[in-house]
Each structure stands twice: as C-alpha cells, then as structure tokens.
Design goal:
single chain; about 60 residues; about 65% helix
C-alpha cells in the first residue's frame, strides 16, 4: 500500500499534442496523417476518442 497520492506526469511533448488537438478543433482544419509523425497521429486519435466518449456520456447523462 502506498501512502502517496498518484500524480499524472505531463511532458512538454504531451502538452504540445493537446495544443495541436485544440488548434485543429478550433480551426476546423483536419491535419493529414502523412504530415505528422506516428506518435503525434496516435496522440491525436486518442484525444479524439476520449473527446467523443465525453460527448456521448454527456448526452446519455442529460
């Protein structure tokens, strides 16, 4: 058993992906996967999936 509270670790690269996702959503411009490296594409897909789940859960709980 641990006595410390777990902490999330957010690296600068992760913050960059969040910024890229937010800018992409705000501008309404879809980035092409070929313009990004594989890790960035994966990060954007994960963020989009999580955002979609939150929207669906919000509708279900409304």
């Amino acid at each position: 058993m641990t006595t410390r509270c777990p902490k999330s670790i957010i690296r600068a690269e992760s913050t960059g992906w969040l910024d890229l996702y937010a800018a992409n959503q705000a501008a309404g411009v879809r980035l092409h996967a070929m313009e990004l490296d594989a890790r960035a594409v994966e990060a954007l897909l994960v963020l989009e999936g999580e955002h979609r789940k939150e929207r669906e859960e919000g509708v279900a709980n409304a």
